[in-house]
Amino acid sequence: MSVLIKNGRIVTAVDDYHADVFIEGEQVTLIGKDLKVEADEVIDATDRLVIPGGIDPHTHFDMPFGGTMSADNFETGTRAAAFGGTTTIIDFAIQTKGESTLKGLETWHEKARGKASIDYGFHMIVTDMPDERLGEMKQLVDEGITSYKLFMAYPGVLYVDDGTLYRAFRQAGENGTLICMHAENGIVIDEIIKLAKAKGQLAPKYHAATRPTRMEAEGVHRSIAIAEVAGVPLHIVHLSSADALEQVKIARDRGLPVHAETCPQYLLLDESYYDQDNFEGAKYVMTPALRHQSNQGPLWDGLRMNDLQFIATDHCPFCFKGQKDLGKDDFTKIPNGTGGVETRMSLIYNAGVAEGRISVNRFVQITSTNAAKLYGLFPRKGTVAVGSDADIVIFDPNRVETISINNSLMHHMNFDYNPFEGFKVQGYSETVLSRGKVVCSKGEYKGRVGAGKFLKRGLYDGFNL
Ligand code: URP
Ligand code: ZN
Ligand code: ZN
Questions:
Q1: 267-313, pLDDT tens digit by residue?
Q2: With CB atoms 3.0 to 4.6 Å apart as the test, which of 6, 168, 205, 212 could cross-link to 274 if both were Cys?
Q3: How far apart are CA 1 and CA 451, in angstroms?
Q4: Residue 152 banded pLDDT, cuts 50, 70, 90
Q5: Beta pairing partners, 261
Q6: Backbone phi, then psi, for 136, in 5-degree steps?
Q7: Integer Cα distance of 86 and 54 in angstroms
Q8: Within 13 Å and on the Cβ side, how many CA atoms surround 443?
Q9: Do residues 167 and 150 lie in contact, with contact meaning Cβ atoms separated by under 8 Å?
Q10: Phi-psi region of 406 (alpha: psi -120 to 50; beta: other; left: phi over 0)
Q11: Is the pLDDT of residue 463 over 90?
């Protein structure tokens, strides 16, 4: 099977030129002007960008949380991702406390097997790491798992203490792998929550009020210090505040291998969303919480100045009816998370490129290339080049759509609201190819459930990020 993409404007992290792309089988085999080749399928990309498929390196499909499961599984989540121009996701497998991480990995393989429309990898969430289990971390590398997420938040659930952090960090560093950090001081936050509840403050808005940005900044600072001593590169996930970003900047200015991502919700939504009537604020209960709007400018600056290397979604949605309402009378029982695996590319093109905050090359870097580099997938993923997987988005940079649960072009995710409801966005993923096969085109699903493959990732490769 061969595909010729004609007349497009190819944009990578560094290039921007008009040419044709020829795909044979699963890979790009030729790029050039006016290619004279026979192809089984020809796609006209006139007036379109031809960009590498998006990489969302932070999703939680089919994840148990707060007594329920995230609403998207690998079938619905990867299909929605493809509709939005994302062709690779990295999800978080979870180690059950006291059990083997390898068992957690097998559970996630079972969840994903035969379900995905696009390629996927896994990180491993480590919930305990006694000395006798440290050897598993090397076995995980052999299985293609080269990054581990640990939590300073959620005491009694996913939280680990500083000793566990240090042990896991040291081993990860020795193995040439990467630590992903949920950096928030969950122990202090739980004390603040106790005080709020004693005062009868139980509405969704108290989720944000009880999670000060200083406690995120403290977590970032502490995890960086522990990582420096342990000798491991560190990546701060879902960074939400200027306060926390400041700590990343200080570390990077010192030359430490510290990286960070933010998410569309922290760039485009703010804490005022919690002030809605009829429990609507619960839709925005996520961790870290939405922040004051004044944080958004510094986060965009961080993206421009490369203190933030990419944008992930932390896609972890729960339906408003039947899931979020578990916390109707107590915000601590609202399952934490929202969804955006489908809307990320359009939202960031619109707010980033169309509104003049970042260049189109930076758009590609922060939605695809840099995640591929940090997580050991580059150059197989994250660029349009001869020899790379033909994960390609034919992107219409002019088309305007409104994000809405009622717009069948923009919402295929399996939950009953959209946190970006009503947002008008310029930029639409018109045709999406995964390893040379069209998965979605003009709003129609053309892929195959189960066509997505598990990606064994390489070691940490973020030295120049
Ligand atoms: O609210 C969130 N972010 N839920 C998912 C779990 C996490 O901390 O990433
Ligand atoms: Zn987290
Ligand atoms: Zn997450």
A1: 999 999 999 999 999 999 999 999 999 999 999 999 999 999 999 99
A2: 205
A3: 15
A4: very high
A5: 310
A6: -60, -30
A7: 4
A8: 6
A9: no
A10: alpha
A11: no
Bridge partners of residue 9, in order along the sequence: 18, 49
User: How is residue 239 written in tokens?
Assistant: 């960074």
Separation CA 4–CA 20 (nearest Å): 7
pLDDT tens-digit readout, 170-210: 999 999 999 999 999 999 999 999 999 999 999 999 999 99
pLDDT for the residue numbered 462? 87
Phi and psi based region of residue 416 (left: phi greater than 0; alpha: psi -120 to 50; beta: remaining): alpha
| Residue 241: closest CA among 292, 303, 316, 305 | 292
Q: How far is CA 88 from CA 341, 362, 382, 404, in A?
A: 11, 18, 9, 24
Ligand 1 in contact with 337 (CB < 6 A)? Answer: yes
Dig out the tokens for 23 from the structure.
């795909």
Mutate to test the pocket of ligand 1, among 180, 286, 331 (most ligand atoms within 8 A of CB): 286
What is the average pLDDT across 19-43? 98
Tokens read off for 30: 């030729």
| Distance from C-alpha of 267 to C-alpha of 180, rounded to nearest angstrom | 20
Q: Give the CA radius of gyration of the chain.
A: 21
Paired sense of beta strands 258-262 and 310-311, if any: parallel
CA of 48 to the centre of ligand 3 (A): 32
- Give the integer Cα–Cα distance in Å for 158 and 150: 8
Phi, psi values for residue 209, rounded to 5°: -65, -25
464 pLDDT band, cuts 50/70/90, is confident
Structure tokens at 270: 């703010």
CA dist list (Å): 202 to 106, 121, 269, 384: 38, 38, 22, 50
pLDDT value, residue 312: 99
- Cα-Cα end-to-end distance for the chain: 36
Calculate how far, in angstroms, residue 186's C-alpha sits from the geometric centre of ligand 3: 15
The dihedral built from the CA positions of residue 292, 298, 303 and 309, taken in this order, carries a sign that is: negative
CA of 237 to the centre of ligand 2 (A): 7
Residues listed for the chain: 465
Q: Does the beta carbon of 324 sit less than 6 angstroms from any atom of ligand 1?
A: no
Mean pLDDT of the chain: 98
Q: Which of 54, 8, 32, 38 is nearest to 433 (CA)?
A: 54
The pTM score is 0.98
184 Cβ below 6 A of ligand 1: no
Q: Sign of the C-alpha dihedral, residues 372, 348, 292, 252?
A: positive
